[in-house]
């Protein structure tokens, strides 16, 4: 199946809309309609804004869940100490195939996101605003919103605003990758831990949060903490945006108050009445079994207590008709290919972990399962970014959640079910660095002699099996690995390796028209 999610799927709401207010009126809220729906917004002083975020328990909605108030105060403190104006960044990069909530917000309610970002910028005295995006539609919407507000990246205005385009890759949406890209570097983690609140874009203290976080801040600033807390749980007030896909009647983004039962949200999307499992938090998240999914409510605390994760708000149920280990293997292969190739735990550990899961499925027995556990454990905490940790969490959760299926594969001849490909992945030719790629590495087994040179050249895609012959990941060759993949093909002594699926013809690149804009918030 493997149908990629549309940029802007169907949007539904449970209860009264806050972030999605006005979506029933127009497809996109321009500035005039935005003000009619949400009303004007006055600036909020720095400490008052931090207190507001604290009063509503606003945590980052991009996956990590870091308290926004602490982040805001840390940036302010660093900026005052150094005498440097900070930078505000909206991270609307969604490189994960199962997430669309930030893309929906930026495409349909861009001014609500900008409201929150501009509140933070004014509170901090920032003079630079950066919005990072991954998709054409998202970039077009935010540029139009800049034009409607008279914001531009040029000298003179009190606030300079610009858009940064990042590749549609898992690691490119990581905070340090976005900061590096905004500074003119590659959209990859720097390989060392640096606090953005101390040293971010251009060395300045940088406040970075995702699009939903800023939109939530804008809603709370308008209605106040008491009214904001009328919906949701007392400990986690307000609403959250969820992206539902997998075994559902139709993928959708849902705005829902915290505390609503997960089973109700799944029913809304047309999921199976008794799902075999529900992946929570996306591809860096964790599985819930059917019993846990029935008991869970939508909240960070509830999901974590049952072994799940809210993460970036992706919810993916699967039904009983598919092999859960096969579904997980597809994702594990994709995660392994998404490495930026900068550290061993990611470049070598993730392919080995995906290969270990394949060995388990192929009847490798208890030894294969033990090897999988060892390599997954060895990856944790040793990467240059959070990609290895998140991928290891996904694999560990898979092994722990589907014990019956695991036993069938380890001790018997498998579970007997096909892998339907219910979990969405990018389609062939998805963009990385803005260039389509649909190539795969294939082995001609009638020629292969098991020299193993290919596994040395591209261990991210090929490893040697227990029999000494290569095992190839069922994943598209990322653009950053094309050179090494082509080298492996050329150097194969038996001429057994080939690449199939030539990249699509590149579209003509045209610079976007630049229009002289005024300054100010409008």
From TrEMBL:
What keywords sit in the KW lines?
A: 4Fe-4S, Flavoprotein, FMN, Iron, Iron-sulfur, Metal-binding
Residue ranges of every copy of the NADH-ubiquinone oxidoreductase 51kDa subunit iron-sulphur binding domain listed in the record? 325-369
State the Gene3D superfamilies in the record. Answer: 3.10.20.600, 3.30.70.20, NADH-ubiquinone oxidoreductase 51kDa subunit, NADH-ubiquinone oxidoreductase 51kDa subunit, iron-sulphur binding domain
Q: Which Pfam families match?
A: Complex1_51K, Fer4_15, NADH_4Fe-4S
Q: Does the keyword Iron apply?
A: yes
Which InterPro entries has this protein been placed in?
ComplexI_51kDa_subunit, Nuo51_FMN-bd, Nuo51_FMN-bd_sf, Nuop51_4Fe4S-bd, Nuop51_4Fe4S-bd_sf
Instruction: Give the required cofactors.
Output: FMN; [4Fe-4S] cluster
In the record, the note on similarity to other proteins reads: Belongs to the complex I 51 kDa subunit family.
Q: What is this protein called?
A: Ferredoxin
Organism, per UniProt? Answer: Streptomyces noboritoensis
């Amino acid at each position: 199946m493997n149908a990629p999610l549309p940029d802007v799927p169907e949007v539904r709401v449970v209860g009264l809309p806050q972030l999605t207010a006005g979506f029933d009126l127009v497809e996109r809220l321009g500035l005039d309609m935005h003000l009619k729906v949400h009303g004007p917004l006055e600036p909020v002083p720095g400490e008052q804004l931090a207190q507001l975020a604290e009063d509503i328990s606003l945590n980052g909605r991009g996956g990590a869940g870091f308290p926004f108030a602490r982040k805001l105060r840390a940036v302010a403190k660093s900026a005052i100490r150094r005498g440097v104006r900070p930078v505000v960044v909206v991270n609307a990069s969604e490189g994960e195939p199962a997430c669309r909530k930030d893309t929906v917000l930026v495409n349909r309610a861009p001014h609500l996101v900008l409201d929150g970002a501009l509140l933070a910028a004014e509170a901090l005295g920032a003079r630079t605003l950066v919005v990072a995006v991954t998709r054409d539609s998202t970039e077009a919407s935010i540029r139009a919103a800049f034009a409607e507000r008279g914001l531009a990246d040029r000298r003179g205005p009190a606030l300079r605003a610009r858009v940064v385009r990042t590749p549609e890759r898992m690691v490119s949406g990581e905070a340090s990758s976005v900061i590096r890209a905004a500074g003119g570097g590659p959209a990859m983690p720097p390989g060392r831990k640096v606090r953005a609140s101390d040293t971010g874009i251009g060395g300045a203290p940088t406040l970075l949060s995702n699009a939903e976080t800023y939109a939530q801040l804008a809603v709370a600033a308008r209605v106040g903490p008491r009214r904001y807390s009328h919906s949701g749980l007392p400990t986690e007030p307000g609403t959250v945006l969820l992206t539902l896909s997998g075994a559902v009647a139709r993928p959708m983004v849902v705005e829902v108050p915290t505390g609503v039962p997960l089973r109700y949200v799944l029913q809304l999307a047309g999921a199976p009445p008794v799902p075999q499992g529900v992946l929570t938090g996306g591809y860096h998240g964790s599985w819930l079994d059917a019993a846990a999914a029935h008991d869970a409510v939508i909240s960070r605390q509830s999901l974590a207590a049952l072994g799940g994760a809210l993460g970036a708000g992706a919810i993916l149920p699967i039904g009983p008709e598919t092999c859960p280990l096969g579904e997980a293997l597809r994702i594990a292969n994709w995660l392994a290919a998404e490495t930026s190739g900068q550290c061993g735990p990611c470049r070598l550990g993730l392919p080995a972990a995906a290969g270990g899961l394949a060995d388990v499925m192929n009847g490798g027995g208890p030894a294969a399962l033990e090897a999988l556990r060892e390599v997954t454990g060895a990856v944790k905490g040793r990467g240059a970014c959070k990609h290895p940790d998140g991928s290891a969490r996904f694999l560990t959760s898979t092994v722990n959640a589907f014990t019956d299926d695991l036993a069938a594969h380890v001790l018997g001849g498998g579970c007997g079910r096909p892998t339907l490909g219910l979990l969405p992945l990018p389609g062939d030719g998805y963009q990385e660095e803005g260039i389509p790629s649909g190539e795969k590495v294939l082995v001609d087994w009638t020629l292969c002699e098991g020299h193993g040179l290919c596994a040395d050249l591209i261990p991210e895609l090929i490893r040697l099996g227990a029999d000494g012959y290569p095992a190839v990941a069922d994943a598209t060759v990322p653009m950053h690995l094309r050179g090494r993949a082509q080298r492996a093909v050329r150097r194969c002594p038996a001429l057994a390796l080939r690449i199939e699926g030539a990249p699509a013809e590149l579209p003509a690149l045209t610079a976007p028209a630049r229009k002289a804009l005024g300054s100010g918030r409008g």
